[in-house]
Design a protein that fits this description.
Low-confidence stretches: none
CATH class: Alpha Beta
Strand content: 15-25%
Mean pLDDT: 93
CATH superfamily: Peptidyl-tRNA hydrolase
Structural class: alpha/beta
Shape: globular
Order of helices and strands: EHEEEHEEHEHHHH
Helix content: 25-40%
């Protein structure tokens, strides 16, 4: 069993925020793969379903923690314990300011790079889980807080939707551990848009 976690803040007020791109990604995975109805449990909203891969069907749970971002680990830890899911089968989708808007990179383990959601999760389950980093760009140190909590513009939602659809279509690859193939397929299906002039240092870390 796999746990696919989207990070964001709960409530309509934050629904279109850049910080909530993780929620957007897992919502599209659920839609594309026909997951069941959304339910509430252990401080999270979750949906259960099957992702068909080349090596067989894999049961998956999609989770959106309903604490605020900096307490995301409560729900993730609760689900990991209740459903007996090992960290290596947990995949977290989240916003990454150190990547240019629209870029998608996978990282296994490592630090949290100051991301409060990851910090909370790592405190609960350790760092040995997979991260899918979804670029939203870096506006400059003094503007980060306002940037992540601001809404995507109508123009930006074009690439956001394309990116989420590409992630959903290629979810079987990441479930199989074909990380490089997943990255390549997503980049091909949803090329990153040009970096806006107002963003600075938007692609410091593309590894």
């Amino acid at each position: 069993m796999f746990l696919l976690v989207g990070l964001g803040n709960p409530g309509d007020k934050y629904a279109k925020n850049r910080h909530n791109i993780g929620f957007m990604a897992v919502n599209e995975i659920a839609r594309a793969h026909g997951f069941g109805v959304e339910k509430s449990k252990l401080q999270g909203l979750y949906r259960e379903g099957i992702v068909a891969t080349e090596t067989g069907d894999e049961k998956c749970i999609i989770l959106k923690p309903q604490t605020f971002m900096n307490e995301s680990g409560r729900a993730v830890g609760g689900f990991a314990t209740f459903f007996k899911i090992h960290p290596k089968n947990i995949i977290v989708f989240y916003d990454e300011i150190e990547l240019a808007p629209g870029k998608c990179r996978i990282k296994m383990g490592g630090g949290t790079a100051g991301h409060n959601g990851l910090r909370s999760i790592s405190a609960q389950i350790g760092s040995d889980y997979k991260r899918v980093r979804l670029g939203i760009g870096h506006p400059g140190k003094e503007k980060v807080f306002g940037h992540v909590l601001s809404d995507f513009s109508a123009d930006e939602f074009i690439w956001v939707e394309n990116l989420c659809q590409a992630i959903a279509k290629n979810t079987p690859l990441i479930i199989q551990g074909k990380n490089d193939n997943f990255q390549t397929a997503v980049a091909s299906a949803a090329p990153a848009p040009p970096i806006p002039a107002w963003l600075r240092g938007a692609d410091k870390n593309t590894s």
